[in-house]
Amino acid sequence: MKIQRLTHKSIRPYGYLIDRTCVDDNGRENRFGILLKERSKGWRIGYLVVRERIIKKLESHPGSLETFEPVKGRAMIALSENKDPQDPKIFLLDRPVILKKGVWHNVAAIFGVCEMKIFENIEVATKYHSLDYPIKAPRSI
Questions:
Q1: Span 50-70, average pLDDT
Q2: Exposure string over 77-87, b if 16+ CB within 10 A, otherwise e
Q3: What is the pTM of this model?
C-alpha cells in the first residue's frame, strides 16, 4: 500500500484542497476566495477523534459534500470513486480537503490519536461498503 501526497491534481477525482491558493480573474493570488458554491438546507460541524489504525469499510454520502480538516496528529484517508469502492487510493491527510458528493472514504490514524474538523450537510444519508481486505495504517511516514 502506497500512501500518496494530497495535491490539487491527485485529489481532483475525489474533491478539492482547501488552501490559500485563490486566484482572481487576472491571475493574482488573493487572501480570500470562494472555493465552492452549494445550495444547502444548512451545514453541521463535527469533530472526529480517530484512534483506529485499520480501515475495514468505506462510506459515501450521495447528497452531501464533506470536508476533512486535520487538527492534530497524523492520519490517512482512503478515497474511491463510485465505480470501484473496493480499490481505494490512500492519501496522507495533512491538508484540509472537500470531498465531492458520493465519494467513498474513511480515515485511520497513522500513529496515536488524530483529530479533525468535519463540515457536511445538516441532513446526511450514508451508504457503507465493506472492504474485502482491510487497509492497515503504517506506524510512521
A1: 94
A2: bbbbeeeebee
A3: 0.85
